[in-house]
Specification:
By secondary structure, this protein is α+β, with helices and mostly antiparallel strands. The protein folds into 2 domains: 57 residues, no CATH class; 89 residues, GMP Synthetase, Chain A, domain 3 (2-Layer Sandwich). It contains 3 helices and 7 strands. The longest helix is centred in the middle third of the chain and has 24 residues.
């Protein structure tokens, strides 16, 4: 277990570092409350430690990106990496990729191309900046390739999420 140090802890308050589990297998991500704020989370993956929280507008401390920001970051990183790999394989003069992402909930009835027509659905707008002396055909091909990044495919397909309880020492 990795201790999570609370920078606001003091001996007088009785605060102690909170032990966090260490990911035990490749690809495992662990998210655990830090108790350093109402919603603050530690995100552990491999050797990387990140923070997550909610913005102050919904009661968090804004000590890290929120869950939807991480979702957008995953899509943006995957898109940029996919485009970089493709351009390198083709030998194209792509100098830099910048991906801008926005998430919002929209009414299903406002989506002309969606099968669902009731309730709300998630809309992600993704804008690509492709820097470099690319011709129009190369830019259009990279636009099409953006939709083939693995995270895009995951988000736009049906997913199965299996949730189960695990035994803990405290109950």
């Amino acid at each position: 277990m990795t201790p999570l140090l609370n920078p606001h802890a003091s001996p007088a308050s009785g605060d102690h570092p909170i032990p966090l589990p260490t990911p035990s297998q490749p690809g495992e991500v662990i998210v655990a409350e830090t108790r350093e704020g109402r919603y603050a989370q530690a995100v552990l993956t491999g050797r990387h430690r990140l923070a997550a929280d909610e913005p102050q507008s919904v009661g968090g401390d804004d000590s890290g990106p929120g869950p939807y920001e991480y979702l957008l970051a995953a899509l943006g990183a995957c898109t940029s990496i996919t485009l970089r790999m493709y351009a390198a394989r083709k030998g194209w003069p792509l100098e830099r990729v910048v991906v801008h992402l926005f998430h919002q909930k929209i009414h299903a009835e406002d989506c002309a191309t969606c099968e669902t027509k009731e309730g709300k659905l998630d809309r992600i707008d993704r804008k690509l900046e492709l820097v470099g002396p690319l011709d129009a055909a190369q830019r259009q091909q990279l636009l099409a390739i953006a939709d083939k990044c693995p995270v895009h495919r995951t988000l736009s397909s049906m997913s199965l999420i299996v949730t189960e309880l695990v035994a803990t020492a405290g109950g």
